[in-house]
Amino acid sequence: MKILYIDNKNYIHNADLHIEFISSLESNGFFNIVGYGDGSIKNLKTYIRINKNIPTQLQEIINKYKPNAILTYSSGSNIPELYKWISDELSKVDIPKFHIATDYLRDGFIDERAKWFEYIGYSMVAFRHKTSFDYPLGVKKSLLPLSIDKNLYLSNITKNIKKQKVGFIGTSSKFPDLYVNRIMAMNALRKKNLLIETKYLKEVNRSQMMFGEHYVKFLTNNLLNLTCGGTCNYFTAKHLQIPAAYSMLICTDIAELEYFPEDTYIKYNINNLDKLISDVLFHIENPKITEEKINILHNFVINNHSNYKRGLELVKIMKDVL
After folding, report:
1. CA 29 to CA 27: how far, in whole Å?
2. Distance CA 213, CA 15 (A)
């Protein structure tokens, strides 16, 4: 199947979940993809940069490559804003159109954003989170959960020597209202000398960012790692990345966590942080039990949430429509 992939965003955080997932659709043999846009579109084998005359250029690309479908993608909530540079032209194209939406509800449900999908004429919108199904949409929708680059993780994990602490990598103190769950957990762990974080970079007023194998190695070097659905209290990338890195997941109770095998992670509540500390210490002091739990959830994620597995699901979604 030939796909015209249109995207103008430069992905930095969790690029392996976003643009690298798109490129995996071609490397895994599912689609032949031509990319159109700027930013991270260069990750694709074949891509075309934007020139000033978008309507003409878009039609030339369609005439040359004759795609069976158009695919777009978003990792933020304001999708109309992300695609305003091509929305009018896209709405006029008579080719089946599909969109993959991540963090669609970050700002809550906004009706005009939902109606944008109708204006463009999408055949299907694939949401990363099942909570998106609770709100109206004038086009067909499907579920396409987040996934990980299986080979990236399997090539960089360690199963034996680990720091007997809880790791955290990401945003926290810059957005105290948004990330109250993780901030309170981190403060409690820090007081007990149980927390390890990436280096704080004073010159840019934030913690060090890591990508690719460096990101995986930070996670895998810690016996446990912390996350929470802070953005809008739902499943995040780290819920998959931490167990994929062969570390024990610590998180708050969120939708979709019920899909994981029971008792393979630590679930905490900010109203009882003493229990969080006791749970962490229990798993540090009982390595055999902890390793067994880590192994179960690690295998579950690797086997059920790889990019290849998700690519198969996307192919089925698209073929059912086409």
Report:
1. 5
2. 12
Residue whose pair of structure tokens reads 């798109």 in the numeric block: 22
- The torsion region of residue 82 among left (phi > 0), alpha (psi -120 to 50) and beta comes to alpha
Say if CB 243 and CB 300 are below 8 A apart. Answer: yes
Contacts 24+ apart (CB under 8 A), 259-263: 260/297, 260/300, 261/296, 261/297, 261/300, 263/293
**String of DSSP letters for 196-235:** EEPPEEGGGTEEPP--HHHHHHHHHTEEEEE---TTTSB-
Cα distances (angstroms) measured from residue 273 to each of 148, 210, 261, 279: 30, 28, 23, 10
pTM, entire model: 0.91
C-alpha to C-alpha distance for 314 and 27, rounded to whole angstroms: 15
pLDDT in tens, 231-270: 556 788 899 999 999 999 999 988 888 889 999 999 999 9
Question: What does the block give as tokens for 45?
Answer: 């084998």
Long-range contacts of 270-276 (CB under 8 A, 24+ apart): 270/180, 270/181, 270/184, 270/185, 273/184, 273/185, 273/188, 276/185, 276/188, 276/189, 276/250
Residue 236 tokens, joined: 């995040």
Q: Which two tokens stand for residue 313?
A: 């699901």
Q: Where are the alpha helices (DSSP H) in 28-100?
A: 54-65, 79-82, 87-91
**Which domains are assigned to the chain?**
2-147+306-321 (3.40.50.2000), 151-304 (3.40.50.2000)
Structure confidence at residue 207 (pLDDT): 57
- In this prediction, the residues of the chain whose per-residue pLDDT falls under 70 are 171-178, 199-209, 229-233
Contact 45, 72 (CB under 8 A): no
Alpha helices in the chain, H assignment, sequence order: 19-27, 54-65, 79-82, 87-91, 111-120, 150-154, 180-191, 212-220, 238-244, 273-285, 287-304, 307-321
| 288/297 Cα distance (integer angstroms) | 15
